[in-house]
Fold:
Amino acid sequence: MRFNGGKRDSAYRHSQCFYRSSYEVRQSDYVNVGGNNPSDFGGDDLPVENVSWLEAIAYCNVLSEKGSLTPVYTTSGHTVTWGRSANGYRLPTEAEWEYACRTGITTPYNTETSISPVESNYYGHYPYGIENNYFYYDTVILAMQNLFPIPPDLVSSLTSVLAG
Structure:
């Protein structure tokens, strides 16, 4: 799959084209290149898992060599250098990964401007984008309650005044 760079997205700009596989690395492919299968959930057609970042870049380098390409990464212990002029396989950058995953969507989430608690495991009783105000009001009311007792019916009145 090819993604053309230079297209303006919400938070970043891509200046180069890049290629990305449409599929995860299968366990059978990882074994053919790397020789071992670190996965807990076995199955030749399942994605490989339990791979560290260093193991992933080693896989990219071996895959590059097998394809007669120049390996992208040079490693020395835990120090890794990215050879940007190399034509081998590599992991996507954070910006490339998000760009590919978003597939042209401009909203904060793939579903809409907010994500529901059903779609993601979180406490979702307030909309996206009001985190600062939400926590500010709670902090003010909590601080006031600690200084002097506030009857519960007054707490709701204070919340509407502070939000006002």
